[in-house]
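OP here, attaching both records as promised.
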Amino acid sequence: MVAAQIVGGIGVALGLSLSAWVVYKLSGSEPISGLAGTAGVLGAALLALPAAKAASTGGRRRGLALAYGSAVAGCLVAVAAIAASSWPGLLCGLVLMGGGSAGNLAARYSATDLSPPGHAARHLSLVVWSATIGSVLGPNLAEPAEAFGPPLGLHPWAGPFLLAAAVFAISLAVVSLGLRPDPLLLARRLATATGPAAHAEGRERTIRTAWQAIRASAAARRALAAIAVTHTAMVSIMSMTPVHLDHGGAGISVIGLVLSLHIAGMYALSPLVGWLADRIGRPAVLLIGMGVLLAAAALSGSAGEHGVAQITAGLVLLGVGWSCGLVAGSALLTESVPIERRPAVQGLSDLLMNICGAAGTVLAGAIVGGLSFGALAVATGIMVTLCAAPLAGMLTSRPRTG
């Protein structure tokens, strides 16, 4: 799973690094170029449930293969769209490429299927951490990859998408050939002596039964809310930071450095977050994450347009708070529902997380445009505080150790 995540992360980062710019070049419109990011998030959301359904019926291999296979197809559609100078076609390709993000998100849950009691968070966190490598390598490969296009009679812009198709194909091969035995199917067999009956129930799983599993568990509901809120808080502030810095006269290199450090905050400490979640409990780490997000909002929101150092510190904390929410929240969600319903619940979680993230970016733009960056930080802080209150009641339960 770590190998697939590293390679898949390269493909996702390659697509993200150039998509908005290429859409702008093809359309000549800045507003239309902004749809590139929306298309990728929408694709990840739309493919989360089909991938989860495939995992429910055929195991993790089938679900991840669907996600990465969709990403390969999306890259090829993007190449064809660039050849035809069609920005609508490119947006369609980017929606399918969202399968890469959906696959990388689903991969973290695969690491928990066979985790011993008390170790789920640290196993999950290692898969999350491995995304750091792909996130760093991907954007740096975009410019050299332009050389792949002309020898095939294609525009240089098609080169990065060809490379992305290749790396997603490698992820597909790694999962299909290397993820054996399938961890979810094996975990189901180990969990019950009536394996065939449990598997039959899995084939009948729907969104409705996923909601039933979540409604039946207060811990699952709180985990779902924490994942959605921490992701929304992160993308809302992160998405508007380049605009805020640009107003202060910061150049592309400065903005790029700030965002790189933010990404490092998101992923680099995830193994420590996972270990801590196993040691002191998932609710405690979720509350720590909420506190870090509040500090991040206060630090970045109170910084002026020229306060690059303060904004950078806030963005690093924002990434760390997101890591706490994703790792501890995903582990808590997984452990709070029956194993035969986990893929559907996990897929629904990723769907809601991406929808909330997309909505957060739209609202963030409206708040900053109508009020200020500081107002966005205040609104984010209020949202985080409201989510943190129910989590505090969970601290009375005995923490996990391991």
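Record two, same layout:
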Amino acid sequence: MTTVQVKRVREERAEGDGTRVLVDRLWPRGLAKADADHDDWLREVAPSSELRKWFGHDPARYEEFARRYRAELDEEPAASALASLRDTAGPLTLLTATRDVEHSHARVLAEVLSTAGST
């Protein structure tokens, strides 16, 4: 099983990061693409704009957000992007611009990827 971790996109690459994939739908504000140390950007695996706006990064809504997001991961184009992440060899670092990574879609995504056969 691939090791999956979550980091903020502005964190420097560390030994053991492996493949670094930005999983936000929108490019991080104030970060030049040339300055982002990432290997890929899979915006298709991010939550829909509607779900993201409903959530509003409110920790009180996190459990319901996580449930809805997992359901979205079963639908295209997210399902194909998720499969692509599952095919990544070696360690995988999911990058997000979200300040609260513990209550983020990237954390949900890491849990999904770390749990065999679940979405």
